[in-house]
Design brief:
Blueprint: H1 25-36, H2 39-50, H3 55-83, H4 87-90, H5 92-95, H6 101-133, H7 143-160, H8 163-191, H9 195-199, H10 208-225, H11 227-232, H12 234-237, H13 243-276, H14 283-287, H15 293-314, H16 317-326, H17 333-346, H18 349-352, H19 356-385, H20 410-424, H21 433-437, H22 439-455
Length: 471
């Protein structure tokens, strides 16, 4: 790296050279298994059941949503594997070396919200385990808050040790967590009289129109669930041994892991209807109904480990890099992780998890309208305008190819703002509610299309040679 500007560069943001890229197919597949096998995935499926879907409708919705989001996931992953750069550096190509802070902060704030959600869930799991061994803890003032902040500190301790610790956790945790999930499924369905009664519960919708009014925003929520990582996936693929390794690993890991664990959530929630007469969508609350301490303890330990794995990989790596990008000289990856932890608490995750409607239709669909436009601009710029060619050195310098106007590409910013505005318009204009229901799709298409139109009036994108170090 030559002529890099210290306001745009530090060791955490620097390109990863080929000799240091050690992630293979298994690492990416296990990464997705570990990130997918978590309580929020379970809650996606159980929330759809609680909202009125049958088991096969819920599974189909989740599978379709993950196949859709896999496309932008793989497209944005390409630059990370090719150039070894993280998301906040990659996005400088389209938004400018300073303008990149806008989408990076958007992504970081959503990640902070997810960090808070996962940490709150993990704290509840610890609190439930504590009550199994010490029933009096239920009457301890502030007990759930003590457990919340204990789990918060554990998350920050893992991220403080760095990316290789995350790689290690994902590798050993993925098969263990899947096994525990299958054991929980086997136990609860046996209590409910087998899979027949569990999966025979019909959906509650009485017409196609009634079903689709619930299905459309639900599908958008499924896409929005991983719309976060679809942006910052270069943070992980920059460590890939090859494009083939990351593409196959993700294509195998994401849809299968999400669908399998979602099925566990669907089946267990359906079993709760048989056992308790109501759909209990929160697994921590469901486990609290069990009178078998050993089963509840094993399940809660698995859920806590799953939550830790997902949180540090999906919700700390990206904002740590994004906050570091704001001021690389002062904010390191570790400092960015500490900022993430503090902001995550301030976003009050306990309110975001108040019920399944707030979780799916408020949180997931709402932020998808913010991130879909970012993905639209990034993909249009990298694949259509630049045809995957970037000037690597210029991404780290002022007055280079990505300086635009004072470091900001205002065409990208305008496209982003218009994409968000159109996607969220349905929240304030009732007849246009469908725009919000399709928030990610609408924002992606509007922002990407406007960006391409505006860039046609800019100086032509320079033809760049393929980088010699292509993975």
């Amino acid at each position: 790296m030559s002529q890099h500007d210290l306001s745009l560069y530090n060791a955490d943001l620097a390109p990863i050279p080929m000799e240091r890229r050690s992630w293979g197919l298994y690492n990416y597949a296990s990464l997705w298994v570990a990130m997918s096998v978590c309580i929020p995935t379970y809650m996606l499926a159980s929330g759809l059941i609680a909202g009125g879907m049958s088991w096969w409708q819920a599974i189909g919705t989740i599978l379709l949503g993950n196949l859709i989001i896999l496309v932008p996931m793989l497209l944005n992953a390409h630059a990370g594997a090719k150039y070894g750069i993280p998301f906040p550096v990659f996005v400088r190509a389209s938004f400018g070396v300073r303008g990149a802070n806008i989408p990076a902060v958007l992504r970081a704030l959503v990640a902070c919200g997810w960090f808070g959600i996962q940490t709150w869930i993990g704290g509840q799991a610890i609190y439930s385990m504590l009550r199994i061994f010490w029933p009096g803890a239920a009457h301890m003032p502030g007990g759930v808050w003590v457990c919340f902040f204990a789990f918060w500190a554990l998350n920050l301790a893992v991220i403080w040790r760095g990316i290789e610790t995350i790689k290690f956790l994902e590798g050993i945790g993925a098969p263990f967590m899947l096994g525990i999930g299958l054991l929980l499924l086997s136990w609860i369905t046996r209590q409910a009289g087998g899979m027949g009664p569990v999966l025979s519960t019909p959906g509650k919708f009485h017409s196609g129109g009634e079903f689709f009014r619930f299905f459309i925003p639900s599908l958008t929520g499924m896409v929005g669930f991983w719309a976060t990582v679809a942006l910052n996936i270069p943070d992980f693929t920059r460590y890939a041994k090859s494009q083939k390794a990351q593409m196959l690993g993700q294509a195998l890991g994401l849809p299968m892991a999400m669908t399998l664990y979602a099925f566990i959530g669907v089946a267990v929630t359906s079993a709760s209807v048989v056992l308790f007469g109501e759909a209990i969508w929160d697994p921590v609350q469901l486990l609290g109904r069990f009178h078998h301490p050993a089963v509840a303890l094993i399940a809660l330990v698995a859920l806590m480990l799953a939550t830790l794995n997902t949180n540090v990989a999906a919700n700390v790596v990206s904002p740590s890099n994004d906050f570091s990008n704001l001021n690389p000289r002062l904010i390191s990856f570790r400092t960015g992780g500490l900022i993430t932890g503090v902001v995550g608490v301030c976003m009050m995750p306990w309110k975001l998890l108040s019920d399944f409607s707030a979780y799916i239709f408020g949180w997931l669909v709402g932020y998808s309208g913010l991130l879909g436009p970012v993905a639209g601009v990034m993909i249009a710029d990298y694949f259509i305008l630049r045809r995957t060619r970037l000037k690597l050195d210029d991404l780290y310098m002022r007055d280079g190819a990505y300086e635009y106007d004072g470091g900001v590409n205002w065409r990208a910013v305008i496209a982003l703002v218009l994409g968000i505005a159109v996607a969220l318009l349905g929240l304030v204009v009732a007849p246009l509610r469908f725009l919000y229901d399709y928030a990610w799709f609408v924002g992606f298409a509007v922002a990407g299309g406007i960006y391409l139109l505006l860039m046609q009036r800019s100086p032509a994108v320079e033809e760049l040679p393929e980088w010699e170090g292509e993975a």
